[in-house]
Amino acid sequence: GLARAARLGITSVHNMDGDEAQVLRYLALHEAGEMTLRVYVPYSVTPATPLAELQEAAAWRTRFHTSHVRAGAIKLFMDGVLESYTALMVEPYADAPGNCGSALFSTEHFAAIAVEADRLGLQIFVHACGDGAVRRTLDGYAHARRVNGQRDSRHRVEHIEVIHPDDMARFARLGVIASMQPLHAPLTRHSAEVWPARAGQARWPLSFAWQTLRQAGAHLALGSDWPVVTMNPLAGFHAALNREPWRDDDPVQRQTLAQTIAGYTHDAAYAEFQEHEKGQLRTGMLADMVLLSEDIFATPVADIARVHPLLTICHGRIVFAE
User: Fold this and answer.
1) 221 has which bridge partners?
2) With helix as H, strand as E and coil as C, how does 37-78 read?
């Protein structure tokens, strides 16, 4: 995994495993001088996790804090995915009347977790694909802010495959980060299998709504969700830059090259409170960088996936050279 990431020019990841054994493996690799990237690992929380266990998640913040291995967040699954009707929807699935999917956490249960995690200063990551799951997550974040007061929490919603228009402005208002994955969105409705039918045409305008969220003031961070899709950032670039509206009157959600670069670099660093440390090539920033085979500003967007790294540097050390 590390060697593949280095070949693909990746110098930082957010590993959603949330497993202590995994973090300890990263630490051992770091102490042996073999870590080729930086990793931020949230603590996994399930419906069976006692509220008191969040103290252990908070302890991870100081227990795992090196140049290459960091913690300080929790990760939950609010729902599943649209393909299997397990994503929580506000209205029923277009091709399954009466079925709104399901959630792993009740409104009250998640609100209690959000309040306690926020009180402990933890960042919260929540997998939410359906618009109902996105809403329930935002409701929990809003409740935590009311109880604990406002702070720079940068809680996150992961995926946001569908969003209800009433919830669009809440990301900016609550300071919540939209963590999204360009490769999840079908480039056209014809390149998908069941997803467009599950959502239905009424929800297409706000499906994978990258640009609409940006216009509403949300901070976006872009990533892969590997191993669900390839971890190759340039494949993600291709998806972000070449996406077409599914209907002529749907909003254009494709990203500009500048937005895409920022989403994978500076904005992703912002999503882990590291924007002053990495994510830009500037004096005083960490020496994490990649040399590409072509000038991506001169490469046609249709051909962007052919670009590949020639050199990857992490922490000032060459970790890959072609």
Assistant:
1) 179
2) CEEECCEECCCCCCHHHHHHHHHHHHHCECCCEECCEEEEEC
CA distance 220 to 273: 14
Name residue, tokens 């390839």. Answer: 230
Q: Are strands 123-128 and 156-159 parallel, antiparallel or unpaired?
A: parallel
Helix (H, G, I), strand (E, B) or coil at 292: strand
Tokens of 265: 């670099």
2 backbone dihedrals φ, ψ, rounded to 5°: -65, -45
Strands (E), the chain: 12-14, 38-40, 43-44, 69-70, 73-77, 123-128, 156-159, 177-180, 219-222, 289-292, 309-314, 317-321
pLDDT > 80? residue 304: yes
pLDDT band at residue 1 using 50, 70 and 90 as cut-offs? confident
Strands 219-222 and 177-180: parallel
- Residues 310-316 have a mean pLDDT of 98
- Whether the full predicted model's pTM is greater than 0.85, yes or no, is yes
* In the chain, where the domains are located: 2-281
- Find the length of the chain: 322
In whole angstroms, what is the distance from residue 178 CA to residue 176 CA? Answer: 7
Query: What's the pLDDT tens digit per position in 182-233?
Result: 999 988 777 767 899 999 999 999 999 999 999 999 999 999 999 889 999 9
CATH homologous superfamily of 2-281 equals Metal-dependent hydrolases (3.20.20.140)
